[in-house]
Design a protein that fits this description.
By secondary structure, the chain is mainly alpha-helical. It has helices at about 10-15, 20-35, 40-50, 55-60, 70-80. Helix 2 (about 20-35) packs antiparallel against helix 3 (about 40-50).
């Protein structure tokens, strides 16, 4: 079960994204914002954005969001390195 957010029509109409990219664009923006505020670790923010590790890291770099590295990030990296 996922979490669903309701966006008022007036707000949705004001968002400058093509309708086809609205959901993925909003998820990316939310993921970047939550990561930047240290609410989500890198792996979970990347998952929310639906991006690969490389894509999400690139997006953070383009936006000047500093990477922070915590215990969850280390665990994700170790799992990734083991190929699991």
């Amino acid at each position: 079960m996922g979490l669903y957010l309701q966006v008022p029509d007036s707000v949705a109409q004001a968002i400058r994204l093509p309708e086809k990219r609205m959901q993925e664009g909003l998820l990316l923006e939310l993921a970047v914002a939550l990561y930047a505020q240290e609410v989500l670790p890198f792996g979970k923010a990347r998952e929310l954005a639906g991006a690969t590790r490389r894509e999400f890291a690139h997006t953070l770099g383009q936006r000047g969001v500093a990477r922070h590295y915590g215990k969850e990030d280390l665990e994700d990296d170790l799992i990734y390195a083991r190929g699991q």
